[in-house]
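// run 5 | inverse folding | seed 20
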């Protein structure tokens, strides 16, 4: 059994801390940026975030295949953290740049920079995720690594989301292109440093060799029933998070009123979108810390089902919270509870991908860790794309008004239909997605007992090969 250190777990966490700082801003603020700052129509912005994912269907598995067949003195997957980190930061900055072009030129700029960003995200995140499969051969240890990863990821998300609005205001204004650009420059610099730390503090302990052709790898993947089911469940999980998260900026702008004041122990503080999302990220960290003992006790599949059932109930209840001072506190409590549950889910899903990789290695005799983990990146992106596009298209369909100049002046009153749509996007729609996730994972066959059998058989095979 490969022995790992606390330093490596912390280093591994820095990687997703960096990715998540970018990803949460993309998922939660990019739709709002495109429609209310950059100046795209809701329909065009929705098409953009969905159509560009067609390239991900090719680039993600391609990156998985490339990284599976990479061999360097640093390992198979780890070198990409060093090679791709600078481009990751630069592309993030370009994504939040608003050029002085006509509408058609800006639309082209948005497509090019978005595709570049997602390609670079694939180039660093697929190998990073696949590292989990070669850092330890113990299933429970993989859950520990996943927990470190997600704990750091949510910590990074909290920092970026909590500071995003203050940063934009400090750098030029929340409703100005310059404010968003310089805020992203600040975040991008921090992300570059964290990827370098991840590279220097980690090590690949297991050596896996892909001995079959690319075609055989794909054939094995498409024949892998647990992979198909986990892809469906993970896509629903990412869809749940993105629908709620991408709606928050609109919800606070048009229903809560951008900012309201709440009193806590006699002290008044601002209740705004970044605080709502940031507290959610801290609560996610509580969930991550709870994942290992809960999943070890109940099993991964049972934990997945019970968490999603709770998400259904809490999401439905959110619809009935009134817009009053007491209601705002209830919204915050609801966000805390929902985020604790999604925090449990995140490391659980990554750990289940590692189990699926072990299943594939045993059944199909192929070390396709990168290819399998690339599918997790693809599910994350498609869930984000479908969720972001759905939010934009639904708001457009229900008459949501977007005009950057009027919005900057505060002269827009949204129709009742659009406001009702925002409430549904925060409640009933995510509830339906969580319910669908339960239906999918119900048929997932890799139980705790089966995973133990797979790990034992793989250890015997690897001992003989060594």
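// decoded
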């Amino acid at each position: 059994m490969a022995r790992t250190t606390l330093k490596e777990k912390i280093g591994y966490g820095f990687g997703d801390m960096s990715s998540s700082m970018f990803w949460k801003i993309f998922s939660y603020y990019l739709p709002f940026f495109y429609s209310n700052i950059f100046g795209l129509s809701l329909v065009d912005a929705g098409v953009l975030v969905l159509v560009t994912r067609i390239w991900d269907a090719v680039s993600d598995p391609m990156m998985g295949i490339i990284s599976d067949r990479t061999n360097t003195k640093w390992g198979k997957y780890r070198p990409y953290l060093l090679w791709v980190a600078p481009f990751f930061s630069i592309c993030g900055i370009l994504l939040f740049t608003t050029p002085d072009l006509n509408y058609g030129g800006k639309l082209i700029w948005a497509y090019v920079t978005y595709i570049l960003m997602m390609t670079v995200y694939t180039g660093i995140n697929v190998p990073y995720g696949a590292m989990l499969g070669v850092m330890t051969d113990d299933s429970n240890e993989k859950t520990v690594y996943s927990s470190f990863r997600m704990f750091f990821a949510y910590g990074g998300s909290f920092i970026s989301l909590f500071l995003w609005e203050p940063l934009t205001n400090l750098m030029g204004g929340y409703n100005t292109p310059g404010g968003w650009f310089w805020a992203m420059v600040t975040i991008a610099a921090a992300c570059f440093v964290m990827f370098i730390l991840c590279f220097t503090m980690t090590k690949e302990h297991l050596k896996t060799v892909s001995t079959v052709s690319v075609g055989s790898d794909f054939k094995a993947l498409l024949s892998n029933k647990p992979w198909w089911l986990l892809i469906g469940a993970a896509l629903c999980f990412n869809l749940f998070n993105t629908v709620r998260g991408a709606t928050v900026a609109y919800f606070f702008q048009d229903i809560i009123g951008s900012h309201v004041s709440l009193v806590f122990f006699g002290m008044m503080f601002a209740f705004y979108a970044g605080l709502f999302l940031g507290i959610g990220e801290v609560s996610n960290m509580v969930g991550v810390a709870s994942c290992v003992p809960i999943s070890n006790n109940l099993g991964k599949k049972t934990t997945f089902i019970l968490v999603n059932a709770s998400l259904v109930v809490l999401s439905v209840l959110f619809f009935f919270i009134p817009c009053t001072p007491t209601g705002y506190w209830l919204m915050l409590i609801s966000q805390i509870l929902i985020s604790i549950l999604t925090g449990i889910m995140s490391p659980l899903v990554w750990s289940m991908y590692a189990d699926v990789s072990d299943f594939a290695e045993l059944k199909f005799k192929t070390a396709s860790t990168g290819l399998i983990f690339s599918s997790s990146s693809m599910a994350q992106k498609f869930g984000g794309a479908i969720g972001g596009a759905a939010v934009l298209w639904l708001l457009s369909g229900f008459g949501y008004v977007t005009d950057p100049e009027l919005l900057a002046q505060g002269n827009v009153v949204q129709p009742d239909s659009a406001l009702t749509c925002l409430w549904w996007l925060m409640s009933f729609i995510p509830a339906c997605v969580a319910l669908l996730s339960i239906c999918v994972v119900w048929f997932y066959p890799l139980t705790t007992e089966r995973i133990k059998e797979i790990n034992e058989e793989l250890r015997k095979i690897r001992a003989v090969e060594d």
